[in-house]
Amino acid sequence: MLRLATAALAGTAIEFYDFFVYGTAAALVLGPLFFPSFSPLAGTLAAFATFGVGFLARPLGSVVFGHIGDRYGRRPVLLGSLLLTGLATVAVGCVPSYASIGVTAPVLLLLLRFLQGLGLGGEWGGAVLLTAEHAPEGRRGLWSSFPQMGPAVGFLLANGLMLTLSGTLSDAQFTAWGWRLPFWVAGLLALAGLWLRRSVEETPEFRRLRETGRRADAPLSEVVRGHWRLLLLTGGAMAVGYAVFYAVTTWALAYATTHLGVGRTTMLACVMVAVLLKGLVTPLPAVLGDRWGRRPLCLAGSALCAVWMFPFVALLRTGDPLLIVVGCTGALLGMVTMFAVVGSYLPELYAPRVRCTGAAVGYNLGGVLGGALTPIVATALADGSGPPWGVAAYLTVIALVSLACFALLPETHPALPRPRTGTGTETDADADAKAGAAEAAAPA
Predict the structure, then answer these.
(1) How far is it between the farthest Cα atoms of the chain?
(2) Is residue 312 within 8 Å of 402, Cβ to Cβ?
(3) Other beta carbons less than 10 A from residue 12's beta carbon
(4) What is the DSSP string of 262-295?
(5) Residue 128: which domain range?
(6) Into how many domains does the chain fold?
(7) What is the 8-class DSSP label of residue 4?
(8) Dihedral through CA 352, CA 150, CA 63, CA 110, nearest 10?
(9) What is the CATH number of the domain that holds 211?
(10) Which of 86, 138, 205, 227 has the fewest CB atoms within 10 Å, i.e. is most exposed?
């Protein structure tokens, strides 16, 4: 399990490195380089719009790779998604600026960002199922939290490199070529990830499905037709994790450097400290989820996010690095209380025959709802000289929506009762859980 979990963590870390290095570049340099005719605010919004395209592509990626995972195995998903994302990221670092090739530059940027999102949309489902379907039942939450640490590791790698370059290069050097280096490094990381995953075995549950002829012919159709309410609820539930994470790591970075006069290097360091603490804490909620159930942790995390958004903005507004770290850390700790357990929770909501598609599409729908729009909306709401309370209100509303969605989802921990809410969703989920248990118990 440790070898499998490490391979899953390494792959998600590399893929999220690819995804996050773009977000940091969008906050710092892509606006002036690729949208020079825009005002500073409009240029930042345009850069964040290309950032959001990656999230719009992720559900499509989860459909494509989910179909592969449910029809042909989880292992091909792990390799294909990593290769696609890595190649697209390296290519971003090679795109000439607007000054060199005109409007073709932002068009290429948009296309490559779409391909990045397509690959990442398949990564999560494959990596989580690799651990969840190999793990013993009583430790499924713990082992499934390893891929959930990947975003923190990827973010630290991406921003650590950006921080080093930002601190050692002049502004002119960083803008001219320094920002491209992290994108080129993605190629080496992708090769390392492929090497780590080359010997990963197919999961026991998929092998049973293949040997007993129970694979879904059209997994997306089966999920949408039979479990559309479950799909929408999981997407809504995941929105808070994306919204809070990207508010801290992308919007706050741009806001503090442009509105508050906080140095680029200082703000990168503040955000990295908060993300590091989030990554270190991730296994704790996962272990608690194995003991107390997945749903209580998800409810608690969403509630903590709702409570903390106004303090987060107030602390950020001070411009004091220590207080900024406190505000960002509080937000991410609320987020990770929920995020740490969804690696086991979402797959348990779906039967094995459609699990790769259902869990991945639900997870990435949350990315569209919470991640794609948050930097754009927050940047627009924060335009002005006053405190950006509109951003805090926006994030609080998303947290409350996710809290409501988690309240309507059932518990999946086998040792705990599953609440019935009268919505009909629990019927779908209960049927999925029973089907999953029956398929898992079937003889090879």
Answers:
(1) 66
(2) no
(3) 30
(4) --HHHHHHHHHHHHHHHHHHTHHHHHHHHHH-HH
(5) 2-441
(6) 1
(7) H
(8) 180
(9) 1.20.1250.20
(10) 138
Residues 213-230 have pLDDT tens digits of 888 788 888 888 888 899
Residues recorded for the chain:
444
**Phi, psi angles (nearest 5°) of residue 40:** -55, -45
The residue type found at 284 is L
| Cβ atoms of residues 315 and 432 within 8 Å | no
Q: Please answer whether residues 275 and 156 qualify as being in contact, where contact means their C-beta atoms are separated by less than 8 angstroms.
A: yes
Q: pLDDT tens-digit profile of 194-212?
A: 887 777 788 888 888 888 8
| Pick from 25-29, 63-67, 189-193, 201-205: least confident | 25-29
Residue pair 132/75 in contact (Cβ under 8 Å)? The answer is no
Structure tokens at 214: 């129970």
**Local confidence band at 123 (pLDDT 50, 70, 90 cut-offs):** confident
Q: Are 12 and 77 in contact (CB under 8 A)?
A: no
From residue 252, give the alpha-carbon distance in Å to each of 154, 160, 314, 343: 18, 17, 12, 27
How confident is the model over 275-316, as pLDDT tens digits?
999 999 999 999 999 998 899 999 999 999 999 999 999 999
State the amino acid at position 68 in one-letter form. Answer: I
Tokens matching residue 433: 């859980």
